[in-house]
Amino acid sequence: MESASEMVPFPLLPTPIESNYRASTIPYRFPSDNPRKPTPTEIAWIDLFLNSVPSFKKRAESDPTVPDAAVKAEKFAQRYFEILEDFKKDPESHGGPPDCILLCRIREQILRELGFRDIFKKVKEEENAKAISLFANVVLLNDAIEDGGKRVENLVRGIFAGNIFDLGSAQLAEIFSKDGMSFLASCQNLVPRPWVIDDLDTFKLKWSKKSWKKAIIFVDNSGADIILGILPFARELLRRGTQVVLAANDLPSINDVTYPELIEIMSKLKDEHGQLMGVDTSNLLLANSGNDLPVIDLSRVSEELAYLASDADLVILEGMGRGIETNLYAQFKCDSLKIGMVKHPEVAQFLGGRLYDCVFKYNEVLS
To answer: A single GO BP annotation from the record (predicted)?
Structure first.
């Protein structure tokens, strides 16, 4: 299951990486804080992860691939709960102080040690099948928009609408298990602009004047997110002559799409001529990012992705984990776009926005 490739720094980060790059967006503590006492921010995030334990336990209980799943799910919940409580007593326990990367890593480690490889597998398969059946319709609606600026805005709204399918958010997991979500309704019901970070107008202007030769897109969730959000956007880039690399996780984590799942999705969407709704896909590459969490530390990516990314001139980090909770302020040697929906109240508060607000942060590097 583990990635066979070596892990290396993402080549488009400025060098030296050590002094310039911090994966976590939110400062959880400052040098003046007592190392033995959790900060209010650390407490808030520990509580956020505590609130998600019941929904993870429920998914684990119903994993048909694990013998004694209910007993092991109970063990997971107990062990993770105890570690989170330990952090409240001593932030330096368990390799701390805690941030969203460490809290995600420990959760995944406990699940994997107990034999849970992919507790969201069933729901991902269901959502992928549903989204594949809607793909052609979504693409035709986009293609029918003649104005280039309006079309790109519609594609961006599609990315936000798709990004709602996130089972790492306790509130959304709850809504989702009750009645699912409609993609087109989600597009129409986005919070109104201006969003909490809103560089869309600048991006639209660049889009009309600029063609990127190669874009790396770090993708997020299965289902509507990858299929109805990212792929129509990637297809539009292909149409414009951009080579596109979609970078997906090595191992399962929450409902994030993995590299093998992405290969399978693409095989179902391409026609017998290798086209995606009339667009040639020979310039579309799929890569294993080497990552195994819903957040990403770009000081460690797979050698394969580093090789593919070395000559890219646009980096896109999509989703709350990769583009907001980590990497929102990351600088790159080329143009970059961070795009995602705010699905945790703690993130909304930090950004000074609303829950389900949108982040569209575009940075242009002037060569």
So the answer is: coenzyme A biosynthetic process
Which pTM does this prediction carry? Answer: 0.94
For the chain, the structural domain boundaries read 121-363
Q: Which fold has domain 121-363?
A: Rossmann fold (3.40.50)
Secondary structure in 3-state letters for the chain: CCCCCCEECCCCCCCCHHHHCCCECCCCCCCCCCCCCCCHHHHHHHHHHHHHHHHHHHHHHCCCCCCCHHHHHHHHHHHHHHHHHHHHHCCCHHHCCCCHHHHHHHHHHHHHHCCCCCCCHHHHHHHHHHHHHHHHHHHHHHHCCCCHHHHHHHHHHHHHHHHCCCCCCHHHHHHHHHHCCCHHHHHHCCCCCCCCEECHHHHHHHHHHCCCCEEEEECCECCHHHHHHHHHHHHHHHHCCCEEEEEEECCCCCCECEHHHHHHHHHHHCCCCCEECCEECCCEEEEECCCCCCCCCCCCEEHHHHHHHCCCCEEEEECHHHHHHECCCCCCCCEEEEEEECCCHHHHHHHCCCCCCEEEEEECCCC
